[in-house]
Amino acid sequence: MEEIQSRALQFAIAAGLKPQMAYTVRQTALYSGVPRSTLYAEHRAGRLKFKTYGKRNALISVSEFDRWMNEN
């Protein structure tokens, strides 16, 4: 089995989520333990990038969350 390099992806799998390239804000909060309010605040401050779709939906890529974790 191939070793997973992404810390975010490792956390997501450990939390019982299937491997994906991006997760919703709610899923990211679940696997990381970072409150949704903090994720949104970091996004508003320009420190965490979301991919938005529709009016009320956002995804955070595992690579972006890894980058953010390494900087904080």
UniProtKB/TrEMBL annotation:
<dbReference type="InterPro" id="IPR041657">
    <property type="entry name" value="HTH_17"/>
</dbReference>
<feature type="domain" description="Helix-turn-helix">
    <location>
        <begin position="23"/>
        <end position="72"/>
    </location>
</feature>
<dbReference type="Pfam" id="PF12728">
    <property type="entry name" value="HTH_17"/>
</dbReference>
<protein>
    <submittedName>
        <fullName>Helix-turn-helix domain protein</fullName>
    </submittedName>
</protein>
